[in-house]
Amino acid sequence: MRSFTLVTLLFLLVTTAVSAQATWKFHHVIKASRLGQITTTRKANKQEQEQVQEVPKVNGRIIPLVWRDDSTSKNHAFQLCSAKLSGVITLEKGVPVVDFWSIGSDAGITQKTPPCISMETDIKDRKFQLDLSPRETLGDPTRVVSVPFRAWPFNVITVPFRIRAKYEDVPTTVTSNIGFALNVGHMRGFSLITNRAITNYSATIGGFIGLSTADLKKAQYKDQSQYVSDQTNAALSYGASLILARNNLGVVLSYGWDHSLGTKSSQWIYQ
Fold this sequence. Notes:
This protein is mainly β. The protein has 2 domains: 5-25 and 147-267, no CATH class; 27-43 and 50-142, no CATH class. Helices cover 2% and strands 54% of the residues. The chain contains 1 helix and 18 strands. The chain has one helix spanning 16-21, and strands at 5-13, 23-31, 39-44, 49-54, 65-69, 74-77, 79-80, 84-92, 95-100, 116-117, 126-130, 145-159, 162-164, 173-175, 179-193, 198-216, 231-246, 249-261. The chain has an 11-stranded antiparallel beta sheet. The longest helix is centred in the first third of the chain and has 6 residues, at 16-21.
């Protein structure tokens, strides 16, 4: 019978600083289809006509993306020239600001009707942000928008206990020896953004590898005649994992194997 180790409920113990340093290519994905339709009206007088654009109302799904003209302190609605763009959204004094990644020539232009942004858009006096204006009365709800994100995280996880499957006459057992492992995976999630905070919810699928210990006791020997005394060997742990997290704290569900290192390792029933 092939032995294996089932590792469950591993708590992710990574501080904010470590998580930030170990995340590669974290970015929000802003799709053109999520921006909604821009309503355009015209103001006329004797000398000129001014085109005024109204930003779609926030309803959770619609992303109220605008660009702010620092020279006039006005917000302007716009569309994306491509189907989607990547960037990072942060809060600056209660305003969600979007730092778009560099747009390449392969972004895929789907429309050229202005106003839309592309690799040729001038950003000298412009700041891209989400128009989540503060509430006007206490009865108004807090404006919330959901934006998806992607990343490749590198995390250190702890293994507080293991559930080992039944092996011949040895029943299913639970061991509590602590191990540490490096976890690498692909993260997908979404940010709930308000003018107060950005809260991230994510799921990461990946693999882990690390060190732990293997207790070789008489009951865990394949050949009982080979037993001399109890011993503890170092062990290599590896397998696949699923991390469910809120910001930098989460729960890890893993399925993997322990490989004992050292003398008598071949006699260990879980090898």
